[in-house]
Fold this protein.
Amino acid sequence: MKTFKQGIHLSEMKELSEDKKIEKLFPSRVILPLSQHTGAPCKPLVKKGDLVEEGEKIADSSSFISSPIHASISGKITLIGKMPHPVMGEMGAIIIEGDGEKRKNWEENEVDLSSLKKDEIRKIVREAGIVGLGGAAFPTHVKLTPPKDKPIDTVILNGCECEPYLTGDYRIMLERADDCIYGLKIIMRATDAKIGYIGIENNKSKAISLMRSKLKNEDNIKVVPLKTKYPEGGEKMLIKAVLNREVPVGGLPLDVGVVVNNVGTAVAIFEAVKYSKPLIERVVTVTGEAVNKPANFLVPLGTPFSYLLEKCGKLKENAKKVIMGGPMMGISQYTLDVPVIKGTSSILVFTEEEIELEEEKPCIKCARCVDHCPMGLLPTVLARLVKNERWQELRDYNIMDCIECGCCTYVCPSKIPIVHLIKRGKLQLRKEKVK
């Protein structure tokens, strides 16, 4: 079974929601932050009091690394101002009060994939506001525009979903397999890639079987079952597992001729090309022991967390912690008023009994963090350098290559918050670079 070096094995906890079919929800009010992606935030194209239609572009940026934002429901702009943000704490946002009408009927376009030009696809993807839906939210049109001196020969569709609890991508593969494959073909067309792979961890046997049956007559697209291990879904880990290529230190997948996209992103690309539909909704898993009725929802962007949790039968009395994303890389929330954004893969709620707060102890130099680091770094050294504020030495130990997967913190017997320290070190280096 193909995989990468190191990493860790985790309790999967996917049984809570993996059999829950995707259910569509339609809130009456959405909060759309002006930054839902990696890169420059957008500026409003509307003003308070304006009436907007579902799919209408309401914010944009002239920056190449950015992504426009569209109205996810039809209604009236009631506020443009700062609101709680699940990543940034607080951010400018546009609030739409819905008009109560039904969702827009997106009409199918006549599309000949073989005649689509690369620039045409990139423009469609950019104007649709599509970003990576695996969590990083990097603008997809940028990925589809590699430098001329770095040709792409392979596209990998990421169906690993290696974080515990998360099941949205799994349900997408089961319920929208044809759309995933069509989106992959569009990505291959946009990048001139001749070969495509769909990487799926072997704990998703139904998805592997279904995708293989759909691709039995395709010569240039293959399904690759992968060992269930965290973080198998990381771009660099996935490339190593599928192709045995190593992305160089400080490099990107395009440096080894590869583009990696999430299965949900592929579906969004399919919808943009086939229906001229922008990214206005996404699948979100709502799960955890503190959730009464775990589920997978397809919701408009901007849907408040509180609305989704209410649809799951509210929270149990011993609910203690709400996280956006998975337990390894997710972000704790301080309010349920935050909205679903493009990078919201999951809302995870832990009980009080599950929250373990242990006192940090001195490093015992056991090297477990080193043994499990998928990037081959020295996490314990990085943590020590940050604690001692030896900022310039951090670059010598390739701190910027850390993917913040959390393996080091998870295995540390001394409970040292290694990832927290590494994030602090990265932030300091970025500040000094700006100076």
